[in-house]
Amino acid sequence: MRTFLLKTEPSEYAFADLVRDGVAPWTGVANPAALIALRSASKGDQALIYHTGKDKAVVGLGEFVSNPYPDPARAERTSDGLPKHAVLDVRALKPARTPVTLGAMKSDPRFAAFALVKQPRLSVMLVPPALDKAIRAMGGL
DNA sequence: GCCAACGTTGGC
DNA sequence: GCCAACGTTGGC
User: Does residue A33 approach strand C to less than 7 Å at its CB?
Assistant: First the structure.
């Protein structure tokens, strides 16, 4: 089981919406690096859900309940003829007891090399196990 | 195939 | 609301 971080703008789709929906396809990933990360996920992997905008914090935990599959809403193909956009179904597991803020991660030297901090605009990334543990400990997840 | 112009993301 | 960082687009 690996853990990924998924960014979302809460005014568009918040963790609370995922809790309400139970399971939802994680759509809208267009950035190539984010798509590579998303395609590397599999059923059973977990996802730290991060709110951009005003919150700027990991606010909850989810779990992938499918493997990546082509986004049925997007017809674009790569030059190889493969579907360009991928989607996974995510199930809400639980909210963070305490949101883990970007500020808290930035001020913690363990996170210095973390993609969330180092690579602006990347919306899907693998979370290294040590940082996954740290975030879960900090957030009560 | 380069790269200038433009668009988007997301923290500040 | 601003703008830095990065992607994408399109003319050449």
Answer: yes
Determine what percent of chain A is predicted with pLDDT higher than 90.
84
Mean pLDDT taken over chain A? 94
What Å value separates CA A79 and C1' C11? 22
Q: How far is the CA of A38 from the C1' of B11 (A)?
A: 23
**Quick check: A120 CB within 7 A of strand C?**
yes
Would you say A31 and A112 are in contact if contact means Cβ atoms under 8 Å apart?
Answer: no
Give strand letter and number of the nucleotide nearest A120 (CA to C1').
C5
Answer yes or no: is A54 CB < 7 A from strand C: no
Give percent of chain A with pLDDT exceeding 70: 99
Q: What is the pLDDT of residues A57-107, one digit of tens each?
A: 999 999 999 999 998 888 777 767 778 889 999 999 999 999 999 999 999
